[in-house]
Specification:
Layout: E1 6-7, H1 13-18, E2 24-29, H2 34-49, E3 55-60, H3 65-70, E4 78-83, E5 86-92, H4 97-107
Parallel strand pairs: 1-3, 2-3
Antiparallel strand pairs: 2-4, 4-5
Length: 108
């Protein structure tokens, strides 16, 4: 399986997320966060399975604190789903694939 997730930063957040033409799930994570590492393979699967319907992006909160602060990220992993430039869904914590998938299905 190839990695279909994209990396977003403070520098490209507006271009990749706000101006995305399809819904995009942004995973706010950090290298030291064990629950974040548990979510990564789930998100890679979803990115592969739903290519063209939703983008999956990862934003490292240590490297891009401005975007994390702008969206009030206080605990990680936090998954925000954006549609037409606005947050339409939020998932906090390492949840199972079916829960994440259900939240995505409600948006697309």
């Amino acid at each position: 399986m190839t990695d279909k997730t994209i990396t977003v930063t403070d520098a490209n957040f507006e271009k990749e997320v706000i101006k995305s033409d399809i819904p995009i799930l942004v995973d706010f994570w950090a290298e030291w966060c064990m629950p974040c590492k548990m979510v990564t393979p789930i998100l890679k699967e979803i990115a592969e399975e739903m290519e063209g319907k939703i983008k999956i992006a990862k934003l490292n909160v240590d490297n891009s604190p401005q975007s994390a602060g702008q969206y009030g990220i206080r605990s990680i992993p936090s998954l925000l789903i954006f549609k037409s430039g606005s947050v339409v869904e939020q998932i906090i914590g390492a949840l199972p694939k079916n829960t994440i998938q259900q939240k995505i299905d409600n948006v697309i």
